[in-house]
Amino acid sequence: MNKKITTVAAALSALALGLVTTACGKNEGGAASGAKSGSDKITLTVWESLNGPDEFIKQAGEAYTKTHPNVTINFVNVELGDSSGQIALDGPAGVGPDLFAAPHDKLGELVSGGHIKPTLNPDEIKKEVLGACSQALMYEGTMYGYPVSAETYALFYNKALIKESEVPTTWEGLADWTKKFNAANSGKYGFVMDVGNGYYTIVFTTKNGNRLFGPAGNDTSSSYLNTADAVAGMKFFQSLRSIINVPAEDLSTATCDAAFQSGNAAMHITGLWNVKPFEDAGLDFGVAPLPALPGENNPSGSFSGTRTMVVSEYSDYPEEAADFARFLLTPEMQQLRFNLTGAMPSINTPVSSKYMPGFLKQLDYAFPMPSIPEMGAFWETMGNTCKNIWNGADVQSELDLCNAAIIKK
């Protein structure tokens, strides 16, 4: 990779000698960058989140600079959920990043806005990363970004409250077990989940392979959230109110996390990001695939997410930014990221975690969150729909309204 950068930089230097352009990358003196060679001192600005990802970028940057001494990595905190909006402001103004983290479902928005460059070497990246990750980064036939981690969620269970042999493999079984547990354990819950978050509740719409925006996740004629299979699944979802008799407004992610972490819930749906907090709380817990929907035998489908580093369209150093992004995919850097964040690697490399098998099995039944621009309307709309259904609204009517709000014709 070092040889590649030197060659590219030298060629650009010959072509751009005497030119001065304005872009995100800055030279050592902080001025707008222009011609460069392999020995030019350059700084790549990288946006990432706090609480783990920041430390990963800092440590990875130090490691990269050891083999690329002319390149310095400058971490700037822009949270994952804010980067897509922030690049639209800072990129054109020339004060944005060279590389930034984004969830893959924002690709459609970023591409449509002209804010990111395609993956520089897509065929090679596809060979290196998990299939679910490479699939998630495809938008209209083109690959964008470099996947740094994969994620899905699964069923966490507290071994002090439920035996491993009792962990249900079907949603009906979970409902039956929870009903008995609640009756025998006043003040505790057999099961909790955020019922007003489409990230989790989407699982109830996936019967018989039903998928958001169709099989490929790009059918803008329908959200597929009001199909017969989705309606049947959401009616079962509504029936779970009988075992968690709590209004949707009081079952947020934070509330459910706290209930499980404090030992007051036997089962909970969440992801790898909660492994460390739960371990720090002293819980003895396990992770299993999600239960199967009524009438099915396999774990219910879950969203899979891919956290990707994308090269800004406004960067003056796109080749170097892409090379650093690819460096983040090496086994050493993927192990470092796992150690710092607990995130699932985006490449097929072993990591030491007794919880990983449960997530990997669930990943076999997960599907990438669609990345079309219509996803922007999905989150709030689906969240409110699920809250209404949980609180007793008519399922078909709510899902019809949800579909109409997302698919604006």
Describe what you observe in this structure.
- This protein is an alpha/beta fold and 409 residues long.
- Helices cover 40% and strands 14% of the residues.
- The protein contains 16 helices and twelve strands.
- The radius of gyration is 23 Å and the shape is globular.
- Mean pLDDT is 90; it is low at 1-37.
Strand content: 5-15%
Outline, from the CA principal axes?
A: globular
Radius of gyration, rounded? 23 Å
Query: Helical content, roughly?
Result: 40-55%
The whole-number mean of residue pLDDT values reads 90
Oligomer: single chain
* Alpha carbon gap, first and last residue: 47 Å
Question: Which secondary-structure class do the elements indicate?
Answer: alpha/beta
Give unreliable regions as ranges. Answer: 1-37
Could you describe the largest sheet, including whether it forms a barrel?
Answer: 7 strands, mixed
- What count of helical segments does DSSP give? 16
| Strand/helix succession | HEEHEHEHHHEEEEHHHHEHEEHHHEHH
Number of strands: 12
